[in-house]
Design goal:
The protein is mostly beta strands. It has two helices and 29 strands. Strand 1 and strand 2 form a beta hairpin.
Length: about 375
């Protein structure tokens, strides 16, 4: 019996040893896969030393730059490490306050510029993107680069985070191809910025994007200030021309009304939209206490000359549990039901297909569970959560 017990114990020990050995081999394999090789954690050229690390996706990014001297130089970022691994981005604060850099060239392998990447680089005058793979420019990425004179982003850049170019006081022109989303205060305090060319792809913009930029050359019309592209200089209504306007007819080519565009225009009584508008929210008219909305069935609307109910803005009574939405509605703004805590049902007398064709700005239902009933007899419905 004792002999059998010892044989079983020995077998268990062997199994355990094999299992541990296998796990050690797996761990070594994983480590080999995710760690940088000994020859590629840094690389040098005449301008200085570039140090690398792996990002959260296991891809290589520049994490630090050590200049070779105090002389101001033109820096071309490495596209690969010493062992041939592609470098895909610039880590947070990688070049922060490096005052020896005159210009930066970003290779085609790169897909992002991290937060604070070139923050306070006082000597930086230009940035060149070699490829069309960069999609994101991070928060305060170029903030405080007070000699940066111009910036042309490739069409691949979709998102520019808050304060990316804040305080770039030498910046005179920007061409922003492909941009979809702007963070808050992107060009805050760019006091000499004159020319801004936006992309037709822009979906959302905040008035504060250009806060304290007194030199910008807007297109002015009928009490409003516009920015756009060569194809459509009226694409974005950025703000009212003054706080004293009493009415505004939005240009027929305008697609976006910036958030808080008419902030504090307390004498504004009427706004007539153009049929091209696709983005608008209640915040566009914050503190516009004299504004007359078009009211119908307990709902407030803004519209065009031909459709007074084009955009549903809000309920007239936020205590309502149900209400009837105008069949002529084309847009539900993002703050439509923000304070309507009791709302349960929306009656829409058009068809389900017509309802689905309404442009619904993201979060239009404010996260509430709302049932929408269609047709004259409300015999079909869908629930949104």
């Amino acid at each position: 019996m004792k002999k059998i017990f010892l044989m079983i114990l020995a077998a268990l020990l062997i199994v355990c040893m094999v299992s541990c050995s296998s796990k050690e081999e797996e761990n070594e394999k994983v480590t080999d896969e995710v760690q940088l090789g000994a020859n590629e954690d840094s690389t040098k050229d005449a301008t200085g030393t570039f140090k690398f690390q792996l990002n959260s996706e296991g891809k290589c990014e520049i994490v630090e730059f050590v200049p070779a001297s105090v002389a101001v130089v033109d820096v071309k970022l490495p596209a690969t490490t010493a062992e041939g691994r592609d470098v895909v981005g610039i880590a947070e604060s990688a070049f922060k306050a490096q005052n020896s850099i005159n210009s930066i060239t970003i290779p085609a392998t790169y897909t992002y510029v991290g937060n604070y990447a070139f923050y306070d680089c006082d000597s930086l005058t230009s940035v060149t993107f070699e490829g069309t793979n960069v999609t994101d420019i991070g928060t305060s990425a170029f903030e405080g680069c007070d000699k940066l004179a111009s910036i042309n982003t490739p069409a691949s850049v979709k998102n520019i985070a808050s304060f990316a170019f804040k305080g770039c006081v030498s910046l005179t022109s920007v061409k922003l191809e492909g941009i979809v989303n702007f963070g808050d205060g992107v060009f805050f305090g760019c006091s000499t910025l004159k020319e801004v060319i936006l992309s037709d792809t822009v979906k959302q913009i905040n008035k504060n994007v250009f806060y304290d930029c007194p030199a910008i050359e807007y297109t002015a019309e009928n009490g409003a200030l516009y920015l756009g592209s060569a194809a459509n200089k009226y694409a974005v209504l950025v703000s009212a021309e003054s706080l004293d306007i009493e009415s505004c007819t939005v240009n027929a080519a305008t697609t976006i009304i910036a958030n808080k565009a008419f902030l504090d225009c307390d004498r504004l009584e009427s706004v007539t939209l153009g049929a091209a508008v696709t983005t608008i929210s209640a915040s566009c008219f914050e503190n516009c206490t004299a504004l007359n909305y078009n009211e119908s069935e307990n709902g407030y609307y803004l519209g065009t000359a031909d459709n007074s109910h084009m955009v549903f803005m809000s309920l007239a009574d936020n205590a309502l549990e149900d209400f009837v939405l105008s069949k002529d509605t084309k847009i539900l703004c993002d703050t439509a039901f923000e304070n309507a805590a009791a709302l349960k049902d929306i009656y829409y007398k058009g068809t389900k297909a017509e309802w689905e064709a309404i442009l619904k700005i993201e979060n239009w239902n404010d996260g509430k569970t709302i049932r929408v009933l269609f047709g004259e007899n409300a015999d079909d419905s869908v629930i949104y959560e």
